[in-house]
Amino acid sequence: MTANGPQYGARSQGLAAQLRWVHDLLRRDLAAVRELAGRVTEGASPQEVAAGLRDLQSRGPLFQLRVNCLSYCQILHSHHWHEDLMLFPAVRRLAPQLSDTVDRLEADHRVVSTLLDTITELAEDLDRDAARHALVDALTTLSAHLLEHLEFEEESLGPLLASWVDWPDRAPAAPGDRPGWQR
């Protein structure tokens, strides 16, 4: 133990780093999608928007906004689905004292899922000015909630993940058998 907390080996630090790496990618992509939404909302005239929708040029801002929103939503849904399916059950099994934390994280996932569904729907309807403005609002709401969620998850689960040598198996552990767990 150091003044900054417990020290772990490079392998165990890698698991916490994996979570942080995925979260950093999500943060980066969220910023890019929000920037696109802002440019479309603030800079594109209705004529430019209509032309962009008709042409759907791969370099046009509306096409990029639609594709990036839809891709981002799919990636984030998948990331949370994997956490719900594999990570959280392992945390509950191996660190039952974090059960309330996992409850909160799962609740956050449900909120994010609803926001992503709204964003997906709005991204499919960018020909309407109201939909574009609603999309920007939904992305702003998602950004605030998701950034808070990612920070909480990293702070809450980071020390536990740093203590694991490898990702634990999904099968329930027998008493005294802690797959992937380093004491």
What does this structure look like?
The chain has one domain: Up-down Bundle (Four Helix Bundle (Hemerythrin (Met), subunit A)). The N terminus and C terminus are likely disordered. It contains five helices and no strands. By secondary structure, it is an all-alpha fold.
Q: What distance separates the N and C termini? A: 14 Å
* Average pLDDT metric: 75
Identify low-pLDDT runs.
1-11, 49-60, 171-183
Structural class: mainly alpha
| Helical run tally | 5
β-strand number: 0
Provide the CATH architecture: Up-down Bundle
Going by CATH, what is the homologous superfamily? nmb1532 protein domain like
Helix fraction by DSSP (H/I, runs of at least 4): over 70%
- Under CATH, the topology is which? Four Helix Bundle (Hemerythrin (Met), subunit A)
Output the radius of gyration.
Answer: 20 Å
Helix-strand sequence: HHHHH
Structural shape? elongated
Looking at this protein, list some descriptive labels.
disordered N terminus, 183 residues, Four Helix Bundle (Hemerythrin (Met), subunit A), single chain, 5 helices, mainly alpha
